[in-house]
Amino acid sequence: MRAKIYSAVLGLILLASCQNSLDLYPLAEPSADKWYSNEVEIQLALNDLYRIDWWQWDEDGTNNSFISDDGFYRQSLSEIKAGTVTSQSGFSTNLWRNSYKAIARANRAISALNSAETKSKVSQAKLDVYLAEARFHRAAQYSKLVTKFGDVVYSDNVISIEEAYAKGRTDKKAVTAKIYEDFDFAIKNLPLSYPTSAVKRVSRGSAMALKARHALYEKDYRVAAEAAKACMDLGQYVLHGDYANLFLQSTKNSKEVIFSIPRSLELKITIGPTSDKITRNSGGFAAANPTWDLFCSYLCTDGNTIDSSPLYDPRNPFKNRDPRCTASIVEFGTAHLGFIYDPNPTALQVTRLSSNSRVTNNDNRANAQFASFNGLVWKKGIDDSWLQNGRQIEPEQIIIRYADILLMYAEAKIELNEIDKSVLDAMNLVRARAYKVALADANYPAIKNGNQVQLRKQLRMERRMELAAEGMRYMDLVRWRLAEKVLTRPIYGLLDPKDLKEKVVDKNLWFFAGTPKIDEDGTPDFSEMAKTGLIRNLVPTTWNNRQYLWPIPTQEIQINKNMKQNEGY
């Protein structure tokens, strides 16, 4: 098992005992006499920059569906969607703290690698690779901070605690320039790839990819387009053949994944327990669910939205939809985790597949009050293996993958209004893969042309279909300035079974009665349907525009007189 884990994208060479010793790695000045005296110690120190704590940035530890319009948790709201974010909010405070911990360690590594003592023991060529690795991680962490907080405290040197507590915030444009410098150094010095038998760490493509992402978030479209295109031109990455299979915990070392952090059951680096996404018939809670908003955003197989396609049938809403819909959300009446999934309130019993017997259907709100409040449950990345090992799972934490690069390239070129065949090809490669066909195949709804406004809408819908539940949607809403629109709309769900009997004449429209309009931003508008009383407002959301930037943690403000808070907090 260990060999399998370590041959994955990162191939960490750190054993569990080493992880424990690195937990005690000093947070103050570096100790050159104990570390960096040989290449093994250098690699052990750099391994700590891959710690999964530094690469989680959301509220549930796996993706940020709860803080976007892609997912929700029963009738509760995240602070983001409640508009109640404060300078003591745990998710923002944790991101700030963990990013600066990683930056401090990267700075210590860079300082030690540049020391005369280390240079006397390691060749300059290898030192440049190690430095590039450390600078990549520093750039990535500063990128996360800038995109969430704006101006941040910046230091590229080892500093004392006293110095740290006196530093003010640096303008984010100056920090971005430093981020680009670090990524460019990494691009120049990191290897293109690694031998299959060797430890695999961040590569040249990883630096290009995260540079492109940062540039896109900062609306540096020229830089984003060039970095994404450079990554594409490396020829190192291809789209995984099966979209649904890519996200399973059994999939390792896919050539689509550009940078990820591995998890390991053996080393107890896992996600779990996973009961919130497991259906109730299978012993879970079905409490964390996709929204109707996400479900309605999947196009029909003719490439049109559900409100404009003759193929859409509200009585059979999964039929004729983009394949990523049923790869991400469990289709009604299909097998899932040992049962046929059917939340229809009239389906009081359901088939258990192992015995082909009929059992009480606890995924039906007529039987179980806390079954999915909107009838939808997640499928993306979920299979029968989630029921094993005490519901602890070990999927890779994908930081960035090739499909995202293709869509970032297309978006940057669209925003530059440099629309050509390469833009259409990038988008169509992603869409064709969803249909399991080649780019030139006629059996998928290829994007053929369009002006800037039309292609912008198509690009945004493509991103949503492709990247659902991967933690990208929230920052998309922020950079597109759509949060104030979509995160003020209610989260809708099913009527209670007793109300459904009273109000809906057509029993086949138990799911949601009708078809919502898809607006100019590619998002569904349920307001007219809500007026009929045939769907239920589960919980209203309240976005606050101050949240386009997160607050500096209270502790930082209290201990540092030079630290200024973001506006509105």
Distance between the termini: 48 Å
Total beta strand runs: 12
Number of helices: 22
| Radius of gyration over C-alpha positions, nearest whole angstrom | 24 Å
Q: Which overall shape is indicated by the principal axes computed on the Cα atoms?
A: globular
On the 0 to 100 scale, the average pLDDT is: 91
What is the helical fraction, as a range of percent? 25-40%
- Could you describe the largest sheet, including whether it forms a barrel? 2 strands, antiparallel
How much strand? 5-15%
Question: Explain this structure to me?
Answer:
- The chain has 569 residues and is mainly alpha-helical.
- 38% of the residues lie in helices and 7% in strands.
- The protein has 22 helices and twelve strands.
- A hairpin with a 2-residue loop joins strand 4 and strand 5.
- Helix 7 packs antiparallel against helix 9 and helix 11 runs antiparallel to helix 15.
- The protein is globular and about 80 Å long.
Task: Give a short summary of the structure.
This protein is mainly alpha-helical. Helix content is 38%, strand content 7%.
